[in-house]
Amino acid sequence: MSVDSEEGTTKADDDASLFLQHLPTDTPVYSFKEWQKEEGRRVFPENNNFVIIKNVPPAALDKNKFLGKIDYSRTSKVLILRMPAEIHETAADNFGALVVLIADRMRVRRRIAHRGSTRTNTKLRSKESDRSWAPAYRPGQTYREWPTVALEVGNSESKAKLMGDITWWLNQSNGQVQQGIIIDIKREFGNVYISSWVAPNVVAQPAAPGGPVPVTPIQPRQNLEAVFKRGPNGRDPLIEGDDITIPFASLVGENPGQGEGDFVFTKGLLRTEVVEPIWQALDAKKLQEADKKKGEKKRD
Asked: Domain spans of the chain?
């Protein structure tokens, strides 16, 4: 292991620091041995879905069943687990259901591979998005490592963490991931930001199979955003911005024919099918937390 000029730090330490830099400060940290021993006794913060596990050997990803979505740095052997949470899963499931709804209307659902959280493996990182899609396989087509559209949902992480994830999908796939969708949930006021991101055209040479794209990561370009600001005291929400569109070819792999077209998620559709269920889950969570505090006061 090479040591950098800064005393006491290693290249792996620096990689781990960059990998973890945008996580909440109260994220629990375990060694891999501790994680295995502490099963059934693990304690997680109230509003933080993440766990950090250090010194995880690469082989453990396949040999162990980890509860949660995986994001693993192979250089630093650090694993970030995003644990299941109702608000998070509500957003991801309902957006995925809209993809199916629109595909059914155009009778193209079977022409899309609904990949869920299928893991993408590269030499430096293994990662699972919240949901992902690609054109369905055709006879004789080999396995596809990357999706063409990836969804990332945030309800406890920072916007910077979400942007880092989308940047990785778009930059490191060498153009195979054509679009990233972010659903950013602000728990305090309930505002929801749904945005679409595409990569700048900066890739000058292809990556080696399974390796990183040989370009400096560049911030993706936001091309669409729908904003849902919750009204106070039951008032109507303020809805601004754009409808979210996924090009037909990005999901189906060919240009649309008669009766087909881009997948358009109108702000009205997003409000009723994605955002309002998020608000309902947020309200239920707040009631649960209030009841818990009342119970604690009674015991004091």
From this structure: 11-82, 86-201+219-289
